[in-house]
Amino acid sequence: MNHAEGRWTGQQRNRSERLARAGAALGGALDGKVVQASHIVELLHAVLEPGDRVCLEGNNQKQADFLGKALTRVDTARVHDLHMLLSVLSLPEHLDVFEKGIASKLDFSFSGPQAGRLAKLAQSGKLNIGAIHTYLELFARYFIDLTPRVALVAAEMADRDGNLYTGPNTEDTPAIVEATAFKSGIVIAQVNQIVDKLPRIDIPGDWVGYVVQSPTPYYIEPLFTRDPALISEIQVLMAMMAIKGIYAEYEIERLNHGIGFDTAAIELLLPTYAASLGLKGKIARHWALNPHPALIPAIEAGFVESVHSFGSELGMENYIRARPDVFFVGPDGSMRSNRAFSQAAGHYACDLFIGSTLQIDLQGNSSTATLGRIAGFGGAPNMGADARGRRHPSKAWLKAGEEARAGRNVIPRGQKLVVQMVETFREHMAPAFVDKLDAWQLAEQAGMAIPPVMIYGDDVSHILTEEGIANLLLCRTDEEREQAIRGVAGYTPVGMARDKRMVENLRDRGIIRRPEDLGIDKRMATRDLLAAKNMKGLVRASGGLYDPPKRFRNW
Amino acid sequence: METLNYRFEGGQRPLSGMPQLVGVVGSGNLEILIEPAHLKGACEIEVRTAAVGFGATWQAVMADFHARWSLADARVSVNDMGATPAVVSLRLDQAVESIADLPGGAP
Amino acid sequence: MSSYQELTARQRIPAMFDAGSFEEFLPPSMRIVSPHLAQLDAAVSFDDGVVVGRGKLGGQVVFGAAQEGGFMGGAVGEVHGAKLVGMLQRAIDERAHAVVLLLESGGVRLHEANAGLIAVSEVMRAMLDVRAAGIPVIAVVGGANGCFGGMGIAARCANTVIMSEEGRLAMSGPEVIETANGVEEFDSRDRALVWRTTGGKHRYLLGDCQVLVEDDTEALRAAALDAIADIPVSGAPLTLDGLLAEQAMLERRLHDTQGLTEPMDIWKGLGMPDPARVPMLEPDAFLELAAQHRATPTLGER
């Protein structure tokens, strides 16, 4: 090879060097692609180089915990200043690598339980945050400027050729592995089992460098289970308003629900309240959604035709297996999820996103940022944003677009419904409506370029509280928009400062609608409307197929 | 605990019947005892609340309650464990409906 | 099917008694609240968390009470306990047909210290007095908070304990055991384990609960009626023979469960087939199986 060619094959040659080092270091502990678990740190020493970009799974649910722990045990003299890429920082080990000086830079999407510690580490200078992303954004950058050099992933099973079965919790793996494998990167997978024949191949062995069987199966957190026993009457009322005031009104057939008790209440009201309004077959037919147990009654009642999922949910495996016409299920019978595609689906192929938040300001911007915690975004902004690249029409999209543009001199286009659903007061009487988001202060505290906003006000189409629905699409001035928000902000200081006459006028024009305006009798808003009132009710609805995780049992 | 008292005049609907109780004094919830009383047409409301410092909010909620129901010769007594205004208004309405509908006798 | 555990105490009473027949003693309008909580500047409840009174059940005069699990976990304070005792004593005075107690309690209200302890012991004594007067006492345990502590003991002073499988009956609460003896001894967050250890099905198999029905107010009401009818005339009082039979059952239990730490192993020891499936069985299927294997006190033993 002459000098000129060598210039273009640096990454490939470097990859070969790393593989050779690994072969030499592991000796008999490496059999083809299979590495003995006892030698995992040696493998990492061999294939990692200082300054590498390392992607660690770190998914919303599935965690490559064995590899994550192993990474904390490398010798900093040999491996340091790694640039970590994670969808979700959920385990202590994810931050231990920074404490120990193994890693120094971080790009991620969501941090959940580690948000407080992350903030402290960032402040102490041991951790330098590149940027905080949405999931889809982060996956996108794996193909542009944040391509991993080494990917540490988790799978259910592998065969000896390195083919992987990722099953229901496939999640982020395909996006991570494709980007890494096709840019001369090295993929290491921890698996629960090594078998002769996989149920199906989710990741081809050609893309995988090493496979190691971890001593214990990887941990999955049940994040999408909500006990119906905890749904309140107020949440039932809000769910009724969502169904009658929005889903029916706009004929929402394709949608995504952000996780929460509010949306669980909507899911549980479909077979009862929505059915009584004659909406079966007209709304809530196609979903981008994790397999929420709360959706079981609606599936059984025939509302739901299809669900594509970002990940899976503990306890739902057998139910999904028995409903392959609804879920995305392989020929082997188990589900396949895919976070990247589900995010894209939520962005482009859904007509409505509805979710909750912690704070909303006078322009409708919302944030879950709180002081002292750097929590990030996850996937909500992808669903909770108008899809300006969309071109195909639907009734809901055209209607929303028309409402937003009526009377204005602009070319017609559609718009996605982005609904923020929130009770005016949260726990401890903290108001959900504020003059200024805590996000501003957090940005200053953490040295962020701009305040971290989850959903921007100009993407929000409706705000729904127990006081009613504010239709921001119909507002024509900033002042109208502000008063519409104040008009549903109830007894919060923001709500109390409303211009009473303007709010009355907005109500007359249908921009604010109260439950009575929607023809909803508040006295009907009781838990009796829920298709299942407790976990056992969900199990019964599933015909015994749903097997709730232990923490949700009360029998 | 904080105790707040309100008195509203000019109510149009005199209350009659047996006292009624709705709700439970649990976290985020409250109980409301509603009963007829000789108050020269007024509606008196006493609130004992574990959430201290929200007098202005209670004032607004009670004013709206009176505007909604316009009770006369009624005493409303509240034991509150941090319920939000939404829950308070809901229970107040439930309390009025319980005394208006009942033939009397059940707890 | 209408869930009993969903309902508040005030909603359970009219559901269990004949429609419109229940008259409450010391109603909330009398504002007999806890002096101890007031002193601690804590929230009080107008009925101190318990409804007591008299009504009809199947046309017969029956006295009753319902504890409100939502208020301080249903824990018994001085006033709460005094209301129960007063109702029980009045039941004797008025020669009630039966007493039905809808129990949901964490036991003694610790805020009230000795007053709470005394209150619970007085409740136990009064229950036994009611039985001694020839009046059956039925305990219904089906609320979400279970029946623990001193009230767990009190429940077993009744003639009959009726439970749903969601109900729990025990002395020490799961969190208390974990705090005192560590998570290896008892992981209180393993709710499936908590219910295997304290829930209705386990209690039924062990013989601490005599009737198991589903979480449905109609079913519990019917079970209460049947339970009263099943007690023979003069069968209400606790007799020496009855006590000895219970103690023999407990001795057998102690012997048979020696060294066992997992309820499924206990069920296996009783002869239940496929113990792992027991928690998922519907009530009818469970009762059929349990009938052949559950422990019971046997009169005449010893």
Automatic annotation (TrEMBL), chain A:
Transferase among keywords: yes
Keywords: Acyltransferase, Transferase
Transferase recorded as keyword: yes
Protein name: Malonate decarboxylase alpha subunit
Pfam family, one: Mal_decarbox_Al
Gene3D superfamilies: Glutaconate Coenzyme A-transferase (3.40.1080.10)
MF term (GO), any: acyltransferase activity
Enzyme class: transferase
Domain of life: Bacteria
EC numbers for this chain: 2.3.1.187
Species: Massilia aurea
